[in-house]
Amino acid sequence: MRRLPALAIAALTAVTATGCGSSTEPSPTPSGPVKIAVRIDGAKILTDDARVEVKRGQRVEFDVTATGSGELHVHSDPAQAFYYKPGSSSFTTKALTVPGIIEVEEEDLHKTIVQLAVQ
């Protein structure tokens, strides 16, 4: 008779553990990249937002219109650099997976373009 309560406890423990365990379903992939338009006219930089929300695993696409050439530096882990030329340039970051604030700056001008809030 002692075996029945022991089996019942084992079965209940197994059911409870599977209910609290992690799902085997993959986590949803973030939708397409976040798009940020940047205009660089000499030393003047214009963007729509100073801070942009980004989901973990999402990429960021920069559309740059510039009067000169330069480098955008994304202070992510690992860091990413993109070179632009006069006219229009477009580039996309690797997936941003580390949560926190990531600054994007114009390297030659030493100016912050945007902060990416990765959550």
Question: What's the helical proportion of residues?
Answer: 10-25%
- The backbone outline, from C-alpha atoms, is globular
- The CATH fourth-level homologous superfamily: Cupredoxins -  blue copper proteins
How do the strands of the widest beta sheet line up side by side? 3-9-8-5-6
How many domain modules?
1
Radius of gyration: 24 Å
Kindly report the average pLDDT value: 84
What structural class do helix, strand and pairing data support? alpha+beta
Q: What is the number of strand segments? A: 9
Oligomer: single chain
What's the helix-strand series? HEEEEEEEEE
Question: Mind telling me the CATH class?
Answer: Mainly Beta
Residues in β-strands, percent: over 45%
C-alpha termini separation: 54 Å
Give me the CATH architecture, please.
Answer: Sandwich
Topology at a glance:
Blueprint lengths: L2 H18 L13 E8 L2 E4 L3 E4 L5 E7 L3 E5 L5 E5 L2 E6 L7 E7 L4 E8 L1
Parallel strand pairs: 1-4, 3-9
Antiparallel strand pairs: 1-2, 4-7, 5-6, 5-8, 8-9
